[in-house]
Design a protein that fits this description.
By secondary structure, this protein is α/β, with parallel strands linked by helices. It has 13 helices and 12 strands. Bound molecules: adenosine-5'-triphosphate. This is ABC transporter ATP-binding protein.
Amino acid sequence: MNQKEKILKIRDLDISFKTDNGNVKAVRGVDLDLHRGETIAIVGESGSGKSVTTKAVMGILAGNGQINNGTIEFHYADLSPERIQEVIEKYNGVIPEGYTRPEEQKVVDITKQSKKFIQSEIRGRRIAMVFQDPMTSLDPTMTIGKQVMEAMRFHYNTPKKEAWKRAVKLLELVGITDAEKRMKNYPHQLSGGMRQRVVIAIALSCDPEILICDEPTTALDVTIQAKILELIQDIQKKKNLSVIYITHDLGVVAKVADFVNVMYAGRIIESGSVNDIFYDPKHPYTWGLLASLPDVDTSGDELYTIPGTPPNMIQDIQGDAFAPRNPYALHIDEKIAPPMFQITPTHRVASWLAAPNAPKVDMPADLKEKIEKNKKEAKLV
Ligand SMILES: Nc1ncnc2c1ncn2[C@@H]1O[C@H](COP(=O)(O)OP(=O)(O)OP(=O)(O)O)[C@@H](O)[C@H]1O
């Protein structure tokens, strides 16, 4: 089997924010891996640290934020604009593994780079982001065309005429008809779904290696949601892009992800392949998330919600942050935070229940039944 090519390796990442009430410990020792062409998802309730983790990757933490510890290793191809053109033409847009020459391979720790380096070399160029609400990422006073051309002009100094041609092609790639005409439109002249397509075109304009999608479909209605997800998948295949989805929607995760990272109170508490997480979840928090997921047979009022609320991230958390909400908590959970236990080569869980001598605890019977049913129907949710 081919060794997978690592593109992002986060280790021991620790981030806090200074506030008048104290230090918010938003991210507490996150490890995360992303390989070329792979899609990973980061899921968890609001405030669990999903966005802060990816903002650190993009070098856009808020001014009161601080990386206290850890590394964000980014492996990338350092190609000149001419080589990029050559690669695109040679591979007809379908960029295979190992397309780089050895001298073009670079590794940087993003946490150690200057703002200037991140702005010129990383953000928008090699790592691009699609945010939830297209209206906030688009400039209402600028035409679509100008906005799609902007990053190309900034990063590669692409001549205007060529940038225009490439922008039209990008709009066509994201499924915008009449692209030439749309170039002259302003964002308000497009529907929500079309605006999100434009945002995706902008994100792709510099041929990034990683695309981070932060709740990319939350602001859209259900049918458009599915189309946008399909579009991202389609483009990902064509360009061998690596994608990180941030979402609280496990339905989205099931559709798109290869690997899933479940976050709680600033930590990744379970990670695994999509099958590991949906068919064989080990953490009681993941059980709760899955149990609260609607399926066709459940009416709204039968839906489970995880009792309690996440902890205050200003106070020091002793033991397992989820223990106060966890009906299966052990005594040790109150005192010592569980380490990551490796269940299989792909599946890891931070729960004392996975320790070799822990009492045997099964997931709730209702959830087991739901999973068995889904397995039989070979669907994830
Ligand atoms: N600039 C800031 N100042 C203080 N606290 C912050 C700041 N930015 C984020 N936080 C805190 O960091 C924690 C993690 O936030 P983050 O936005 O990563 O959560 P999330 O999991 O992405 O949630 P959501 O789904 O709501 O976006 C939260 O407690 C949040 O309040």
